[in-house]
Design brief:
It is built from 12 helices and 2 strands. It is mainly alpha-helical. The chain binds a DNA duplex (21 and 21 nucleotides) through helix 1, helix 3, helix 4 and helix 7. It is found in: Nucleus.
DNA sequence: AACGTGTCCAACCGCACCGAC
DNA sequence: GGTCGGTGCGGTTGGACACGT
């Protein structure tokens, strides 16, 4: 055991001696934490826990604040746009949840991680394949993501067109992901509600080149409105893409989607 | 109504990193 | 260079809840 590990063990032993509380937070504890941070700000979590009168570790206080009590935490279902972003960014960075969360304002790394485990990994399990396998990644890239784009577009088309204008007026940049759908028409989806003015999107997409100049099949692209992505790669999934409507937004695959996907997946194994 | 099973998510855990001393 | 305190990250778990039988 190295010095750092010893230090961690010693601190945990000290925690036990103080009889720190664990488990779910009470309303009273939440109020103490919120009020203390409102008066003194966040940071220095161990001393914060002490001075706020909370019998919790600093780590516990930090986690509670960041994942639950922070005023800008977004709650509720992950939107289609957010699902698409998660898939995109995960394909690039893997399980770098905090980095992915930086590009989904109001969403926590914990929430994204939970989403991935409960939704995406569940589908991988149902398809009887490893979530890290090429087959599963291809399925995401060539089937789920284009389908999400179409559904986002359908939603945009049926909703008020004032949204984008309003977002522009309050200074939120509009970033779009564009794809070529499988029938060779161009599809563009705006992610304006997800990208904060301070997010470093150039970090994600800083080295983008046109698809026809990149020979790497695993390459994905995203850009300002006007460029294109190509997820088709000659695979013919048009019946699936065209045949399913009325899909609920909280899951990116409904039952029919999944059955078709399972057939396509087995066929292409 | 009672029970079993599956799902979801808040919270915890272990580890690593960093800066100060 | 070693130690310590603070912090952040990714993986895991436990319990509440929903749903089916």
């Amino acid at each position: 055991m190295d010095a750092k590990a010893k230090g961690n063990v010693r601190r945990e032993e000290e925690d036990d001696q103080i009889e720190l509380r664990r488990g779910p937070w009470t309303v009273e504890e939440d109020l103490k934490l919120v009020n203390y941070i409102a008066s003194h700000g966040e940071g220095r979590w161990n001393s914060l826990a002490l001075f706020a009168g909370l019998k919790r570790t600093g780590k516990s206080c930090r986690l509670r604040w960041l994942n639950y009590l922070r005023p800008d935490v977004r709650r509720g279902n992950i939107t289609l746009e957010e699902q698409l972003l998660i898939l995109e960014l995960h394909s690039r960075w893997g399980n770098r949840w905090s980095k992915i969360a930086q590009h989904l304002p109001g969403r926590t790394d914990n929430e994204i991680k939970n989403y991935w485990r409960t939704r995406v990994q569940k589908h991988a399990k149902q398809l009887k394949c490893d979530v890290n396998s090429k087959q599963f990644k291809d399925t995401m890239r060539y089937l789920w993501m284009p389908r999400l784009v179409e559904r986002i577009q359908a939603g945009i088309a049926s909703s008020s067109s004032t949204t984008a204008t309003a977002m522009g007026q309050i200074g939120i940049p509009q970033v779009a992901l564009s794809y070529n759908t499988l029938d060779n028409s161009s599809t563009t989806v705006s992610l304006e509600t997800q990208i904060s003015p301070t997010s470093d999107f150039s970090d994600c997409y800083g080295n983008i080149v046109p698809i026809n100049e990149n020979t790497n099949p695993d390459y994905f692209q995203a850009s300002q409105i006007g460029s294109s992505n190509d997820y088709s790669h000659g695979m013919d999934f048009q019946p699936w893409l065209r045949g399913v409507d009325n899909i609920t937004s909280d899951h990116f695959l409904d039952c029919d989607d999944f059955l078709f996907l399972q057939q396509q997946f087995n066929f292409n194994m």
